Amino acid sequence: MAFQDVCKQSYIAEGELVPIKVGKQEIVIMWADGGEPKAYEARCPHEGVSLGQGDFNGRLLYCIAHGWVFDGRNGRSLQPAGWQMKEYPLRIHNGMVQVDLSP
Ligand code: FES
Asked: What total of structural domains would you count in the chain?
């Protein structure tokens, strides 16, 4: 595990999606209502469009390209079913959000 700081804890909030650039990589911190903050690769598993530009309503994330829908609690696709956003380990440490992007 190689956790690195990606943003301040105060930068994220329940019900919100936050896109973050880490080096050349784009990730999203998605925190669904009633859930926990989670980190995902920003690339949509369909055709790779950035989900950082997606429309998140606190529960569902809609890709702006072709309208695939993802569950904000776990990154699983709901429409169509059977796909999964790539998740990275996330932790909060000393007021910072830390993510492990190692393969
Ligand atoms: S790239 Fe996201 S739905 Fe097609």
From this structure: 1
